[in-house]
Amino acid sequence: MARMKRSEQLAAMGSGGKDERPKECFDAFHERARTKEPDFAYEVVRVLTGLWALTFFRARTISSEKVPQSGPVILAPNHGSFMDHFFLGAFIRRKVRFMAKSQLFQPPLQFVYSHGGVFPILRGRRDEEAFRTAHAVLARGGIVVMYAEGGRSRTGELGDPKPGIGRLALESGAPVVPAAIAGSARVRNWKKLQFPKVTVQYGDPLRFERVEGPTRDQQMAVAEEIFAEIRVLYSGLETLGRKGVLQRAREQRRLERRGKKRTAPA
């Protein structure tokens, strides 16, 4: 892999989210992801982030049994937080593989990413290597996470689907499991000592006939079908969340009324 000094790497990052480093800088990461399984780094990170998720964010999962226990699978969730990868993988036994922006692949964390099964994707330009790696992982019977919105939503709400998820589904023919992650968009509030409850719900696997060289219209049609399922799941989680808030408010009012009755003069 081409080596660059730290100062050179930072200069090559450019602005506006585009990584100006040549793709050759990431060949070794792709090669490892295509030929090797995640090692001890994956388990260490899963344990640590799983404990963090359970302790501070009261993370829970719904219908994780819908994720096939073997064979190639594409997990297609919405994306609201840098923690989404860990929320997804914390509750299923299989090791999930996902692509992350290339800017993250810098010492020393690039060792953790690479050995944890993560592979880079270049932002700001077409990156065929990331798709080749995703196909290689699927061909070996692995699970690949691809966010239906492409990148993280900046508004805290669901965004719009991108054709990438449709392309991968059609080119690979692998089943797609839609997933909704609710609450993760507020994870950054931990800096304000606010820890939102996070829930992940998996949907029924979707299967699409394999197509070689799908057109953009075909890719978008599949992406929109997948995202429609995500919207249904997400809406259901939001409704459950609102009901939970209302239930807690009613319980609080009942406790307050009881307290007033006990302190009322005879």
Structural class: alpha/beta
Order of helices and strands: HHHEEHEHEHEHEEH
Output the strand order for the largest sheet: 1-7-6-2-5-3-4
Number of helices: 8
Which fold does the CATH topology refer to? Glycerol-3-phosphate (1)-acyltransferase
Overall average pLDDT: 84
CATH C-level name: Alpha Beta
Strand count = 7
- The percent of residues in helical segments reads 40-55%
Whole-number tally of structural domains: 1
Strand composition percent: 5-15%
The low-pLDDT segments are: none
Summarize the entry for a quick read.
The protein has 266 residues and is an alpha/beta fold. It has helices at 6-12, 27-35, 40-56, 84-89, 109-115, 128-139, 163-172, 216-263, and strands at 60-62, 73-77, 96-101, 119-121, 143-145, 176-182, 199-202. The chain has a single domain (6-261), classed as Glycerol-3-phosphate (1)-acyltransferase, CATH 3.40.1130.
Task: Please tell me about this protein's structure.
- It is a single chain.
- The chain is α/β, with parallel strands linked by helices and 266 residues long.
- The chain has a single domain (6-261), classed as Glycerol-3-phosphate (1)-acyltransferase, CATH 3.40.1130.
- It has helices at residues 6-12, 27-35, 40-56, 84-89, 109-115, 128-139, 163-172, 216-263, and strands at 60-62, 73-77, 96-101, 119-121, 143-145, 176-182, 199-202.
- It has a 7-stranded mixed β-sheet with strand order 1-7-6-2-5-3-4.
- Helix 7 (163-172) crosses helix 8.
- The radius of gyration is 21 Å and the shape is globular.
